[in-house]
């Protein structure tokens, strides 16, 4: 009994036992994840859980062993300096594993988020965003890891942090425009103000179809000239944007038409409404409407309002409607006025001639 008591209270025995138990516990967790959890994950419709389990299995195993090793070191009757050094080594390894897991989860989150934003990012650009974000995140995590490890070992990092801060300011000023465009692109993707194929109009007057959202700029195919407009992401992010593709691809059209004085107002309205019904892509609901707007200097002005099923057809629909309206008004005897002026000339005798 005394022998058993001495063995159980022996610090070396406690250290060995704690390490063995942690090793067994790590193996059990590793086997559970590899055999049971992975089989369960393969039955799910997504691949994210498979990726997570495959990446965290080995790090968790090593973390459990390191935990057992730290307990074992505390049991051993070692000099304080040696014990402190060994514990710092273990903590340093734990920090490295922890930063690895942090980088993995952040990169996985970005990859998943960009995959959900594929309607915003042009095909082939997703890998560029992933590569850039991964490099930036990994660099930041690496710098933080170095600072934590140096602080753990008692090395003053104040000068290093100050140097990094100065270097960051210099780099930030040198790459101010580039970084503003990169973060502007990320903000546009996160906000999802538009997607590839949407027709937008900027406050500067440019209008066109979104064809690409890149790291530095967004490319728009102009409808007027048919050429490509390249806009920096930082400028686009701060611009007022009219998106004709949201919330629907419908477009409301307002067309003004003037007829001569003396025309039958009701007849003109009926003619214009009938023209809207004959034009393809004009929606029946909401129904087209015609309003008598004003009695101008030389014409009675009407405004026709209708909705187009696809904003990309707006020019064709407008051309077809105006052409049809002009022809129908002429056939029905409704005159289209042109500007006229009556001039009165006062003669020397005081008579007024016109």
Give structural notes:
This protein is an alpha+beta fold and 354 residues long. Helices cover 57% and strands 15% of the residues. The protein is built from ten helices and ten strands. The longest helix has 37 residues, at 80-116. The radius of gyration is 37 Å and the shape is elongated. The mean pLDDT is 80.
The domain count comes to 3
Largest sheet: 5 strands, antiparallel
Topology order in helix (H) and strand (E) letters = HHHHHHHEEEEHEEHEEHEE
- End-to-end CA span: 138 Å
Average pLDDT confidence is 80
Q: Tell me the strand percentage band.
A: 15-25%
Continuous helix count: 10
Residues in helices, as a percent range = 55-70%
Helix/strand structural class: alpha+beta
Low-confidence residue ranges:
none
Q: Radius of gyration from the CA trace?
A: 37 Å
Number of strands: 10
Q: Name the overall outline.
A: elongated
The main sheet orders its strands as: 4-3-2-1-5
Question: What is the fold's blueprint, element by element?
Answer:
Blueprint: H1 2-9, H2 11-42, H3 48-75, H4 80-116, H5 126-152, H6 158-174, H7 176-191, E1 199-202, E2 207-213, E3 217-222, E4 228-232, H8 233-237, E5 241-243, E6 251-259, H9 265-278, E7 289-295, E8 300-308, H10 314-331, E9 345-346, E10 352-353
Helix pairs in contact: 2-3, 3-4, 4-5, 9-10
What's a quick, concise take on this entry?
It contains ten helices and ten strands. By secondary structure, the protein is of the alpha+beta class. Strands 4-3-2-1-5 form a five-stranded antiparallel beta sheet.
């Amino acid at each position: 009994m005394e022998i058993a008591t001495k063995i159980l209270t022996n610090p070396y025995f406690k250290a060995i036992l704690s390490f063995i138990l942690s090793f067994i516990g790590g193996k059990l967790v590793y086997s559970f994840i590899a055999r049971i959890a992975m089989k369960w994950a393969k039955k799910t419709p997504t691949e994210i859980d498979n990726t997570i389990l495959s990446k965290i299995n080995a790090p968790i195993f090593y973390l459990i062993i390191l935990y057992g090793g730290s307990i074992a070191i505390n049991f051993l009757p070692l000099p304080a300096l040696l014990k402190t050094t060994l514990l710092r080594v273990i903590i340093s390894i734990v920090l490295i594993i922890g930063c690895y897991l942090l980088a993995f989860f952040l990169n996985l989150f970005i990859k998943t988020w960009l995959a959900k934003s594929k309607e915003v990012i042009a095909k082939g650009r997703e890998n560029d965003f992933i590569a850039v974000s991964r490099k930036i995140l990994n660099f930041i995590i690496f710098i933080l890891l170095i600072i934590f490890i140096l602080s753990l070992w008692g090395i003053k990092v104040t000068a290093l942090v100050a140097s990094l801060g100065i270097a960051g300011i210099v780099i930030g000023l040198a790459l101010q425009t580039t970084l503003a465009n990169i973060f502007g692109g990320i903000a546009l993707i996160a906000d999802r103000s538009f997607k590839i194929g949407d027709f937008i109009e900027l406050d500067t007057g440019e209008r066109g179809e979104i064809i690409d959202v890149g790291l530095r700029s967004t490319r728009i195919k102009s409808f007027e000239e048919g050429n490509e407009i390249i806009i920096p992401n930082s400028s686009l992010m701060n611009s007022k944007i009219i998106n004709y593709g949201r919330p629907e691809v419908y477009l409301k059209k307002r067309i003004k038409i003037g007829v001569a004085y003396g025309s039958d107002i009701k007849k003109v309205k009926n003619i214009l409404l009938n023209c809207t019904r004959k034009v393809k892509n004009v929606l029946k609901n909401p129904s087209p409407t015609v309003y008598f707007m004003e009695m101008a200097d030389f014409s009675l002005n009407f405004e026709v309002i209708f909705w187009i099923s696809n904003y990309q057809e707006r020019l064709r629909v407008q051309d077809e409607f105006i052409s049809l309206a002009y022809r129908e008004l002429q056939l029905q005897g409704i005159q289209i006025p042109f500007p006229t002026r009556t001039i009165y000339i006062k003669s020397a005798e005081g008579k007024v001639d016109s």
